[in-house]
Amino acid sequence: MNKGFTLIELLIVSVIMVMLAGFLVSNFSRQRNELAAAATGMVSDIREAQGLAISGAGFGGLLRCGYGIAFLDEGSYVLYAGPDASVTDCVVDDHVFTLGEDDVIREIALSGGLELVGTGDIFFEPPLPYTYLDGARGGPDLSVSVKASGARCPSTACRTVNITGSGRIYTTQ
After folding, report:
1. Quick one: CA torsion of 21, 24, 29, 35, rounded to 10 degrees?
2. CA-CA distance, 43 to 40, in Å (whole number)?
3. What CA–CA distance (Å, rounded) separates 119 from 99?
4. Do the beta carbons of residue 124 and residue 54 sit within 8 Å?
5. Most buried of 4, 22, 93, 99, CB within 10 angstroms?
6. Farthest-apart Cα atoms in the chain, separation
7. Minimal CA–CA distance to 96: which of 73, 68, 72?
8. Are 78 and 46 in contact (CB under 8 A)?
């Protein structure tokens, strides 16, 4: 009796291997797209806060000391309006998100197994706007990464959003 594999057995194993490889490639590609979309969305939200401050826009019928982004935990951040400028001295305000004092415009939650690495607060004060990172005007620079759950940064499963003290916003891998 011959010992070995038949052609049909080899074809079945080959088909199974091709299917597994296809699943892995499609899952990796989907995850990279979700990662890029989350980082782009975060940059867009930060620029929205910056744009609201530059325009001097009001919120809730009130003139605001500014607008910001606060990274709350591993899965979410908020776009918020600072305190009412008519009752707060904006110059001496702490320029960080305070629940109850600052109004949340929108809360953004990451999905698809994505997480945030890093916390902090970005605040733009009109009219220039001045940039406050963690309450300090002009710096030090702040970086927050969006990553796939279980991944380490830097890697292809991680995108980092950087904000400089001058208000420049850019991403790195």
Report:
1. -160
2. 5
3. 16
4. yes
5. 93
6. 94
7. 68
8. no
Q: What radius of gyration, in Å, describes the C-alpha atoms of the chain? A: 23
CA distances from 102 to 26, 117, 161, 169 (A): 42, 24, 24, 23
- Give residue for tokens 């709350």: 72
Tokens of 38: 């989350």
Q: Kindly give the confidence (pLDDT) of every residue in the chain, 173 residues in length, as a single tens digit, with 9 standing for 90 and above.
A: 667 788 888 899 999 998 888 777 666 667 778 888 899 999 999 999 999 999 988 999 999 999 999 998 888 999 999 999 999 898 888 999 988 889 999 999 998 788 998 888 999 998 878 999 999 998 789 999 998 888 888 888 889 999 999 899 999 87
Per residue, the 3-state secondary structure of 101-140, as one string, reads CEEEEEEEECCCCEEEECCEEEEEECCCCEEEECCEECCC
Q: What angle do CA 66, 70, 72 make, to 5 degrees?
A: 155
